[in-house]
Amino acid sequence: MYFVFDIESIPDIPLLRSLIDNPPEDDKTLLELAGEEFGRGKSGFLPPMYHQMVSWVGLWVTSGGEPKQKVAWSGKNEREGLLSLVDSLTTYKDFGVIHHNGKGFDLPLINYRALKHGLQLPSRLNAHDIRYRFSKQNVDLMDEFSNFGASSYPRLKHIGALVGIPLKVTGEGDEVLEMYQNGELDRIEHYCYEDVMATYLIWLHLQYTCNSLNESDFQNLRRRALSKLEEIQNEAT
Question: 135 is in which domain, residue-wise?
């Protein structure tokens, strides 16, 4: 079994305030300073250590690509969300994970936030099959398509455009903080679910391209996944 997943997060404002000398009162200026000190400039995205989780969505699929179960959480109680994720990840013993940039962001974020809240993660996440960068049980689409950094890292939206998958109807990543501040948690989860379905679809394309799926199974799974993606996007409009 594989767990196709994505996490939505926002900057951890209290943590940033505790780390910056004489922090400004308004959050916008604080984030600009944090971007300069910890990220990639004022508009740079902060590394995973400085984020808190506000939503996650996962889709359990078989090694043959058959979807089995969708699980999700969104909210303001991050500890509750982590416990929910841990509970979901104990559904199967020897699972793999599929994601886009999960090695660079989502998985480190899970570790940092579990550390913050004093929680234990499933031992599977620390297994060699998952921790080893070139593992077939930890599939990062960024690594797969860039040949582990030998080529440039592709954006999920751009791969989707390449194979005819429309993405980002619900929102863009830099809009999550605004949605969170407006109390639009359902919208954030919707956005996260859209990314998960896109990741799943692109993984299906990769499996077919690499000759791991026959054409009949691929076309059937792709048709069903595109229908679900369209349903998700229609609900967001």
Answer: 2-236
**pLDDT confidence bin for 237, thresholds 50/70/90:** low
pLDDT digits (tens, 9 = 90+) for 15-32: 999 999 888 988 889 998
Q: How many domains does the chain fold into?
A: 1
- Residue 4 is predicted with a pLDDT of 98
CATH number at residue 171: 3.30.420.10
- DSSP letters, the chain, are -EEEEEEEEEE-HHHHHHHSSS--SSHHHHHHHHHHHHSSSTTPPPPGGGEEEEEEEEEEE-TT--EEEEEEEESS-HHHHHHHHHHHHTSSSS-EEEESSIIIIIHHHHHHHHHHHT-PPPGGGGSHHHHSTT-TTEEEHHHHHHTTTTSPPPPHHHHHHHTT----SS--GGGHHHHHHTT-HHHHHHHHHHHHHHHHHHHHHHHHHTTSS-HHHHHHHHHHHHHHHHHHHHHH-
